[in-house]
Every structure is written in C-alpha cells, then in structure tokens.
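Re-run with default settings, no changes from the original entry. Doing this only to confirm the output is reproducible before filing.
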Amino acid sequence: MLAFTKRLAFAMAVPTVALSGCYVVPVAGDGTPIYPYAVAPAPYPAPGYAVVPPPAVSGGPYPSVLQARLYPTNDVASQTGMITGTVTNMMTGKGRFQMDYRGEVLTGEATRVSGDDRRGVANAYGPRGTYMSCDYKMNSPYQGAGKCTMSTGAQYEVHLGS
C-alpha cells in the first residue's frame, strides 16, 4: 500500500511540474519592455455580428521604478556604508520611496517642489523611529541626484536611476 501511495504521489507531481511554466520579459532601466511580447490577433466575428473595438483607455505615463543609491559623506554614514533602495516615480510629481537602513525598512514619499519641475524632497520613516530627509534634483524623469540626512546624523549623497 505504501509503495502504491508513493507511486501515485509521484505520478501526480510529474505532470504538475512539467506543465507549469513562466516567462520572462526583459525590461529596460525605466521599466519598459525591451522585447515587447506578441499579442494574438482577435478572431474574426461570426457572420451577422459586428466588431466592436474595446473602449479607449486614457491615462498618463506608467510609473517607473528607479534605483536609489546612497553614498556616505560623513563619519557616521561611513559606519553603515552604501545603502540601496527604490523610488517609484508615479509620473505625477509624486513618488514612493523605500530602503533598508540597519535592518529597518524606511518608507515614505517623494514630491516635486512647486514651481521647479526638477527639484524635489523625499522623506521616509521606519517602525523603530528612524527617519530620513532628502533634497534632490532630477536631470530627467529617470535620473537625478541629491543629499539625504538621517535622524542618526548620517549624511549621504543620493543617486537616482540607472
């Protein structure tokens, strides 16, 4: 009976593993696909039926995830070294910021300064009370630089984008 149960479990597992699959779409640094995948054409309608196009979807640019690299600029920051995080640029003048600082995940937002489309401020806060404040300037929607100060006194120069 035990041998039959093992064979049955094996027989059930093999098709599950063999038939499961995934695909990978390579993306550029700004999040756009490098090799757009093909979309199957819609089938022809049956005789007597009209083709109705899908409704137009209006919307702005898609969000872009940027890498944030923080390089130490004082002795306090040198104890931790370089830090990495991400900024999701919502393409609306706002973004979401997230990074790991000494085992504490800091999350917050980035906002462009009114009257200056390139300059912005970012703030993040962690569950243990650590916080960070940054001032940055974007060269493009996908690249920028600035300075960040932590509540611990650590100071960093931040580079955004690839």
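The chain has two helices and eight strands. Residues 2-19 form the longest helix (18 residues).
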